[in-house]
Amino acid sequence: MAEAHQAVAFQFTVTPEGVDVRLSREALKQIYLSGVASWKKRFVRIQNSFLTGVYPATPSSWLAVVVATVGSMYCRIDPSMGLIGHIQHYVPSCRYLSFQHRTLLSAALFSTGVWLSGILLCRQSLKLLLSYHGWMFEPHGKMSRSTWVWAALVKVMSGRKPMLYSFQTSLPKLPVPSVEATICRYLESVRPLMEDEKYHEMEGLAQAFKQHTAPRLQKFLVLKSWWATNYVSDWWEEYIYLRGRGPIMVNSNYYAMDFLYVTPSPWQAARAGNVVHAILLYRQKLDREEIPPVMAFGIVPMCSYQMERMFNTTRIPGKESDTLQHLSDSKHLAVYHRGRFYKLWLYHGGKLLTPRDLEQQFQRILDDPSPPQPGEEKLAALTAGERIPWAEARARFFRQGKNKVSLDAIERAAFFLALDEEAHGYEQDREDSMNHYAKSLLHGRCYDRWFDKSFTLVVYKNGKVGTNAEHSWADAPIIGHLWEFMLATDKFHLGYSEGGHCCGEPNTAIAPPQRLQWDIPEECKEVIDSSYRVAKALADDVDFHFFQFTTFGKGLIKRCKTSPDAFIQISLQLAHFRDKGSFCLTYEASMTRLFREGRTETVRSCTKESIAFVRSMMDPARTQMERLQLFQAAAEKHQHMYRLAMTGAGIDRHLFCLYVVSKYLGVESPFLQQVLSEPWRLSTSQTPQQQIKMFDVEKNLDHVSSGGGFGPVADDGYGVSYIIAGEGLITFHISSKFSSPKTVSPTPGLAGRRLPWG
């Protein structure tokens, strides 16, 4: 085959006349170009590390300081007040350095010291400014004079054209709240959910904990906050995610969907070509730090550290704890189609494959008639089942030979791509079309997604796309940032030909994707089948409903001077009460990325104020004005709690870390055990959008996002994700379990079941 010959750089043959050496110029050219591209990438990383390290200063500012200092010396003005002469005294004299040269060198060293001191001063000043969060608690649309001055100073100190990681060292550390404040807020959050006897018992446990156990635990936690970059994130990643031994499919991984109404191309290979190229362009910008940091309200930088592991990252199973394997680079993609695995090189001649070249490669995979090898089809079910069997199977059956080579190709890939055989997406004449789409992205067939990869891109037969993301390495807004860039680039920048194919002409000389080879013994097949059965039972138990609310959107809510998020959270409380006739502990995720290496915090959105409003809605004797006043009080309370969570004054991460410290010290705390065992029967999250404004949603209403979702956290609870997609659209992703008689995700047309949205 031609591609096989091109893969050989040189050949030699021993003949009676000697050794005949034949070089392949094309192969050597490709090797040379790949090397040049690798060295360019290394140089860019070194350059970016330097520029980020001296931000908000620039190399030109250093030169300006040196020139100004040397110029003043020639004017017989000593800006150093004798320090340059003192430095000159310690510069070794030699025949190559005249007195004038030593003076210039001393002036340059002094200037560099002044320049570096200025950088440190600016960073510390910016860190102090960013530690102020009073701006978040001011009334919407109003800004006090002190906040206006603060915002102006932040603008000045932030510099111009920051790179992705420019602000990392200027972000403040997450503060450790006082034990008294945390316990007070906790008791306030559970008071409306507990009977008097249960509450007084909990209050007693809390007081005993505060007086006897907490002071010692708090000291260790404060010590960690001084030493570590973030006192929560490493423990959160390890104990909440990596040490979980149950399946990560459904229980941890989450998904994101395509445009709701639009499918840019109906051709599977073409859509995959454009989408993969757009994702690789994003990775290129990420490597070069050309993506600007996300700024809250356009002023306050948010932490970007989670973006570091977006690509080339895989969760590796272990018996006691998993680990995250992250590579600095990966030049290939792992692809799954119809039970077969492939390795697809993303570069040719040191350059990214064009969308048309990628389309050609994916079409070659789709046209491949070869059947799966024995045990290959359901191999990925290992990543969907329990973690310990997967860890043992990996250590036993994938440590050597072709199995190790093929597994390495998957785990060391930039990301995982599944070319799905099904067609999914919004169909107006099928009420359940989006429900099936959601379930397909959440768990698929339990063996056609590699759930351990940082994310699996899914491209369906009809050109629709979606993704399934592993949760330990980052939170949903990070994938959301990539997803927005990908969708906008695919549709509005790359585009398609009239026939729906990628633009341009393919390079037919590119070698086809490499089929991965496996030698899976019977014992391994049994483990695969066992993992598949566990995953299949879990997937079949998930009840999912995608709900489009089109009566109004954020426009009307904002005109009522109410936060859209608070409006929806209070509405969910009303819906839950109508469904179950009771209230429950409610989890809403918020970000703590105002702090360095911040991840999430919990907003306990079931409050006594929201309960009072819900009860007024169920009481026909209450007037509309009374209900409105109670609603406004509930919305204000929710906003206040959300702001507390974002500014490091939340409840649950502090209590979680105190619990971890207690375990390390061997201290038993009935209070902490009770707190951390309480189930979240209503788990909610808002999908962020328009983090990067590459197109105007209001001018392209048919290009609204469908958002994403996740599985239920509690067996007898609901998982609710929502996205405020526009002025007139809010979409909900609602999950529960069929096995629970206490829940039912609302399904239109399902006779005999009352919908909580009514």
From TrEMBL:
What top-level class of enzyme does the UniProt entry assign? transferase
Q: Which UniProt keywords apply?
A: Acyltransferase, Fatty acid metabolism, Lipid metabolism, Membrane, Mitochondrion, Mitochondrion outer membrane, Transferase, Transmembrane, Transmembrane helix, Transport
Keyword Membrane, does the record have it?
yes
This protein's membrane topology, according to the annotation, is: Multi-pass membrane protein
Q: Pathway it acts in?
A: Lipid metabolism; fatty acid beta-oxidation
Q: Principal localization?
A: mitochondrion
This enzyme's EC code(s): 2.3.1.21
Annotated ranges, domain Carnitine O-palmitoyltransferase N-terminal? 1-46
Known catalytic reactions = (R)-carnitine + hexadecanoyl-CoA = O-hexadecanoyl-(R)-carnitine + CoA
- Any idea which residues are catalytic in this one? 471 (proton acceptor)
Which Pfam family, any one of them, does this sequence belong to?
CPT_N
What is the annotated signal peptide range for this record? none
Listed under GO biological process in this entry are: carnitine metabolic process; fatty acid beta-oxidation; long-chain fatty acid transport
Task: Give positions of region: Disordered.
Answer: 738-758
Q: Give its localization.
A: Mitochondrion outer membrane
Domain of life, per the record? Eukaryota
Chain ranges of the Choline/carnitine acyltransferase domain: 174-743
Q: Please give the Gene Ontology molecular function terms for this protein.
A: carnitine O-palmitoyltransferase activity
The function of this protein is: Catalyzes the transfer of the acyl group of long-chain fatty acid-CoA conjugates onto carnitine, an essential step for the mitochondrial uptake of long-chain fatty acids and their subsequent beta-oxidation in the mitochondrion.
The similarity annotation says: Belongs to the carnitine/choline acetyltransferase family.
PANTHER family per the UniProt record, alphabetical: CARNITINE O-ACYLTRANSFERASE, CARNITINE O-PALMITOYLTRANSFERASE 1, MUSCLE ISOFORM
What's the protein name? Carnitine O-palmitoyltransferase 1, muscle isoform
- Organism classification: Eukaryota, Metazoa, Chordata, Craniata, Vertebrata
